[in-house]
Amino acid sequence: MSLRARNARVVLALLVVLGIMTTLVSYSVTIYRLFCAATGYFGATQRVASDQSAVSPRTIVVRFNTDTQPGLPWRFLPAQPQVTVHFGEQTLVYFRATNLSDQPIVGHATFNVQPDIAGRYFDKIQCFCFTEETLSAHQTADMPVLFFVDPAMLKDPDAEYLQSLTLSYTFFRSARPEGAQDLSRYQQPMAPTAIASPERGRQLFGTRCAVCHGLEQSKVGPMLGDVFGRRAGAVPGFAYSSALRDARISWSADNLDKWLQNPQGFVPGVRMPVHVADPFDRRDLIAYFKNLNPRHAVTATPSGS
């Protein structure tokens, strides 16, 4: 083999090695995040479609921590400093972000759980951290996170002793702002009025309900577009709890109000993790659901009860 041919082979081999190294560097962040998600390494949390775990009587305290990248003009805080939850219990919490600048900014949140060993057992069903997010100038948004702590943690000798864990988020200015979602979908609804307002109910649905429910398709929870007047547990193909499936109730205004106020008190044994404490919010959500059903028309209700 001539010297020129040998040199060409060496150059080709070096180019192949350089190409492989360049590809690994380009995708190193993605590969690292996949590795952490699969193993829980460095407290990476898990993303799941739904929670099928049995709820344990044991509880754990989940604390929340937030930070922003230096130079990012956002205020970012948890709406609650901590919650106490049962293992396997779905819990909805909120984080509030405010853009303090005069221009829209696209952000991306990174996250982890401490201690590291707890990351593999912290499961997020819905989270703003899955996507790039746009916050308009001086806009404030309350962003939901729906999670549960896997009861399998209680069988891990390296983790079952934990009494608390901390979920941390840091928001950075996004390096890939194209296609970002708009956080206006989480803006606060207008103030309640003296009579039932389907429009305010629509806004409440977007901020309080849409994280788990669609109108025309099921998500974590069943679709709600035709819920008013529907029999409980009746959406085809949705995996209801046996308690709700066997409840034999229909979603009248009165039953919806009782359900929204205290789901597990109204139908013991259901998995619904969220309640709506404000009577005006319940009133307007029910008015919205009623309006979605063409067989019904909203009747003005002057009180919030």
Please give a structural write-up:
With 305 residues, the protein is α/β, with parallel strands linked by helices. The protein has 3 domains: 37 residues; 143 residues, Ctag/Cox11 (Pfam 04442); 104 residues, Cytochrome c-like domain (Cytochrome Bc1 Complex, Chain D, domain 2, Orthogonal Bundle). 26% of the residues lie in helices and 24% in strands. The protein contains 7 helices and 11 strands. The protein has a 6-stranded mixed sheet with strand order 4-2-10-6-8-11, with no helix packed on it. The protein has a 5-stranded mixed sheet with strand order 1-7-9-5-3, with no helix packed on it. The radius of gyration is 24 Å and the shape is globular. The chain starts with a helix and ends in a 13-residue tail after the last helix.
Which percent bin holds the helix content? 25-40%
Q: What portion of the residues fall into strands of 2 or more residues? A: 15-25%
Low-confidence stretches: 24-44, 47-51, 299-305
In CATH's first tier, which class of the largest domain applies? Mainly Beta
User: Gap between N and C termini, in Å?
Assistant: 92 Å
Strand and helix layout:
Blueprint: H1 3-26, H2 28-39, E1 46-47, E2 59-68, E3 74-78, E4 82-86, E5 91-99, E6 105-114, E7 122-127, E8 133-135, E9 140-149, E10 164-173, E11 181-182, H3 198-209, H4 242-245, H5 253-261, H6 263-266, H7 279-292
Parallel strand pairs: 1-7, 2-10, 8-11
Antiparallel strand pairs: 2-4, 3-5, 5-9, 6-8, 6-10, 7-9
Helix pairs in contact: 3-7, 5-7
